[in-house]
Amino acid sequence: MATKKVTGSQAVILSLLEEGVDTIFGYPGGAIMPIYDALYDFDQQVTHILTRHEQGAVHAAEGYAKVTGRAGVCFATSGPGATNLITGIADAMIDSIPLVCITGQVASPLLGTDAFQESDVVGISMPITKWNYQITDADEIPEAIAKAFYIATTGRPGPVLLDIAKDAQFQELDFEYKKCTKIRSYIRDYQIDPFSVKAAADLIDAAKKPFLLFGQGVIIANAEAELKTFIEKTGIPAAWTLLGLSALPSDHPLNVGMLGMHGNYGPNVKTNEADLIIAVGMRFDDRVTGKVSAYAKNAKIIHLEIDPAEIGKIVKTDVAVLGNAKKSLAMLIDNVKENKHESWLQEFRECDKIEYKKVISKDIYPEKGGLTMGEAVRIASEKTNNEAILVTDVGQHQMVAARYFKFKHSKSIVTSGGLGTMGYGIPAAMGAQLGAKNRTVVAFVGDGGFQMTLQELGTIVQNKLPVKIVLLNNNFLGMVRQWQQLFFEKRYSFTELQNPDFIMITNGFGMAAHKVTKREELEAGIQKMLDHNGPYLLEVVVEKEDNVFPMVPSGASVSDVILEA
Amino acid sequence: MKQEFNITIFSENYIGLLNRITINFTRRKINIESLTVSASAIQGVSKFIIVVNETEDKVRKLVGQLDKIVDVLKAFYNTNEEIIYEEIALYKVPTDALYESDQIEKMVRKAGARIMEITREYTVIEKTGHKEETQALFEELNQFGVMQFVRSGRIAITRDPIERLSEFLKERDALLGSID
Ligand SMILES: Cc1ncc(C[n+]2csc(CCOP(=O)(O)OP(=O)(O)O)c2C)c(N)n1
After folding, report:
1. Domain range summary for chain A, segments of one domain joined by +
2. Which of these, A428, A556, B45, B59, has the minimum number of CB atoms within 10 Å of its CB?
3. SS (H, E, C) A99-116
4. pLDDT in tens, A351-380
5. Is A309–B68 a contact, with Cβ atoms under 8 angstroms apart?
6. Could you give all domains of chain B from N- to C-terminal order, each with its CATH number?
7. Which of B68, B76, B77, B173 has the most A C-beta neighbours within 10 Å, making it the best mutation to test the interface with A?
8. How far is A238 from chain B (nearest CA, A)?
């Protein structure tokens, strides 16, 4: 490629185009103005979404990344702009989401002088980025951006941050772009060791009660087909972590449900009866394991994982298969014998019956009392033919949505797992809608979290993004209230909210909205929301003091999961 | 059980990398007992030697995280038995004390230390050795009033016949070449 003279700012945009970026989420300010000025000439090639807060931009970029599998890109200015990104970057780090964040920085001669809007964003973001770098010379821009995309999207993905000094944005350089294909200090994938595959296959063939747990690693590696083939060949029941949701269709006969604190009864209880755990692309988070010293004690553990630091981090592994799950599962498929585990699977189904009777039927088909979150989720899922993208905020509604929303397609869940970031839902939904323009995006949010980022309704309206928002209003910080009820003697310390008129607020942003309070109105209300051409908010006033069950109380073993208080 | 471990890190020589490394210790509340960084035998590659007093389980997990840092080439750890290590200490004592008796000179000889510089006011003594040894000499000399004292971080090499890094870089090249 011939070189041409451009400014650093133009080089930023040209480099992003070389990486195939079509959408940028951002917010301008002094130190990034040259880049915004360059962007002005590229409105045909790239869509820039002006959010109402930098936190909105970064969560939107996460939502976009989740549904596309590509890096989400966001821009912010120096100082407060950059620090407003921090929550989202931390969220992306713990949930392995590829992001490329570009922040403006004061001009390089001013670095370290406490200049106006100077903050050490490279220092601040170091613990929460996979990699970050400060650019003070325009010549570095193409290579740094190429490296940023390579690092963000390969291996175990994660956020990267590039901090570009304002003088470098003005400087000229000879622009030439080369994609990054390797970094000597960085391994993005491993050659799968055939001996460990063989050892794993032997354990799998010999197991009487094998149980497969899958996480987001399956989705990141595009290994959904391999996962399905593997469990079908071996007859092994499979359960998912919150972030692994949608990798296996909900109605698959071997899909036995969700793991963890508010997961299904069977998967939690049976973890401690299994004689073999096959963990694929998951990291044994404490919300999944409960008390580790009482976790899966009867089982040998096989761990298929791309990040060597995850192996043996929480639980002792018997066989580790290091590498990309798509490849390791494919090799395992070739090495295992065909098998069936009918009676073992039946044990899960028995648990389902108990859970259905004690919990699920009351949640999703209640006959009396106030509206439940569960019925709203069930109806929305049914009416979208189980084909929508589900976005959630954080709290009770998140757990209920994960439990009762059904899926046919992978990459259909956008939720904050590791960090549990309230305020994530609304901006992530708009990012998801931009990443999947032809799909229905349904976002469930609580009345607490909604008020953390509701200003993004303005962004949704300005960009005509047809997201469907279901606000499940219980007038409480519900999840915290549930813990106060169960573990703090109902001392409801600062969890009740005096809420505004959400319909008026939403209408004020120019968005259609409707409120339902009665069971008879719910279905029609959801239908109307889905039929509406454009963004829509449906407020569902639900029972104030409902709890989410089953529950593994924190510190308890997974087999001590409780079905009622 | 806690014991002394020596963490060796080979990395690119980039700005900020020390910070990226040490935050992994801070986050896990692991104290750094000593730290040395300098150019390694391979051009452009820095070598860190960090001494901690921790359980092996914690050290193993910590090293896993360090090894994962994008700009780190390789991180590993050893017990004291697996390596040859030294520290260097400098002591400044009043020259008067040296002339008044031959005790200091005897201490220096016995400890295998050497005198680097003598001025009218002070004398600088240098000793290499393990911490207990340099510390013992400090206690002895301090009878005469040590005016200044400094001890370096630890430097260490493994008992392997070759530098692990060169071997490792070859393997890494092969690996990077083999992954599509
Ligand atoms: C930014 C942030 N602050 C605090 C919390 C702690 N927290 C977890 S769930 C929750 C309550 C959420 O309430 P709401 O949004 O109304 O949803 P609900 O639980 O009622 O469905 C809180 C405060 C959090 N996860 N994130």
Report:
1. 4-175, 194-348, 370-542
2. A556
3. EEEEEEECCHHHCCCCCC
4. 999 999 999 999 999 999 999 999 999 999
5. yes
6. 3-84 (3.30.70.260)
7. B68
8. 28
User: Is A117 assigned a catalytic role?
Assistant: yes
For A69-88, how does the pLDDT look when each residue is reduced to its tens digit (9 = 90+)?
999 999 999 999 999 999 99
Instruction: Name the residue of A87, A94, A479 to mutate for ligand 1: max ligand atoms within 8 A of Cβ.
Output: A479
Closest-CA residue in chain A for B17?
Answer: A126
- How far separated are the first and last CA of chain A, in Å rounded? 67
Question: H or E segment at A151?
Answer: helix A141-153
**What does the block give as tokens for A129?**
């980025």
Does the active-site annotation cover A310? no
Is there a cis peptide before residue B161, judged by omega within 30 degrees of 0?
Answer: no
Give the torsion sign (CA, A207, A208, A213, A218).
positive
Rounded Cα distance between A290 and A147, Å, is: 38
Give the whole-angstrom CA distance, residue A356 versus residue A361: 6
Which CATH superfamily, name and number, covers A194-348? TPP-binding domain (3.40.50.1220)
Element at A6 (helix H, strand E): strand A4-7
Ligand 1 centroid to A252 CA: how many Å? Answer: 32
Whole-number average pLDDT of chain A: 97
d(CA A244, CA A216): 4
Residues with CB under 6 A from ligand 1: A 393-397, 420-423, 446-449, 472, 474, 476-480
Nearest to B99 by CA among B119, B69, B79, B73: B119
Beta strands in B22-147 (DSSP E): 34-39, 45-54, 72-79, 83-94, 114-118, 122-129
Q: Which residues pair with A160 in a beta bridge?
A: A100, A131
- Residue A479 annotated as catalytic: yes
In a 3-state reduction of DSSP, which class is residue A48? strand
DSSP, collapsed to helix, strand or coil, labels residue A161 as strand
Give the burial string for A482-503 (b: 16+ CB within 10 Å, else e).
bbbbeeeeeeeeebebebeebb
Measured CA distances, A70 to A48, A216, A435, A557 (Å): 16, 15, 9, 37
CA end-to-end span of chain B, whole Å?
A: 43
| Dihedral angle computed from the Cα positions of residues A11, A13, A16 and A20, in that order, rounded to the nearest 10 degrees | -120
Give Rg (Cα) of chain B: 20
Which DSSP string do the residues of A422-481 spell out, in sequence order? Answer: TT-HHHHHHHHHHHSTTS-EEEEEEHHHHHHHGGGHHHHHHTT---EEEEEE-SB-HHHH
Which residues contact residue A30 at a Cβ distance below 8 angstroms, ignoring those fewer than 6 apart?
A77, A78, A104, A116, A117, A166
Cα(A396) to centroid(ligand 1), Å: 8
Say if A194-348 and A370-542 have the same CATH topology.
yes
Give A452 Cα–ligand 1 centroid separation in angstroms. 10
Of the listed A4, A45, A116, A340, which one is catalytic?
A116
Look up the pTM and report it.
0.97
What is the interface pTM, i.e. ipTM, of the complex? 0.94
Give a three-class secondary structure readout of A187-210: CCCCCCCHHHHHHHHHHHHHCCCE
Residues B66, B7: contact at Cβ < 8 Å? yes
Distance CA A412, CA A241 (A): 14
Token reading at A482: 């549930």
A319/A300 Cα distance (integer angstroms):
8
A4-175: CATH topology: Rossmann fold (3.40.50)
A45 Cβ contact list (under 8 Å, min separation 6)? A17, A22
- Asked if pLDDT for residue B42 goes beyond 90, the answer is no
- According to CATH, the superfamily of the domain at A370-542 is Thiamin diphosphate (ThDP)-binding fold, Pyr/PP domains (3.40.50.970)
Q: Name the band, by pLDDT with cuts 50, 70 and 90, for residue A508.
A: very high
Amino acid letter at B8?
Answer: T
The one-letter amino acid at B60: R
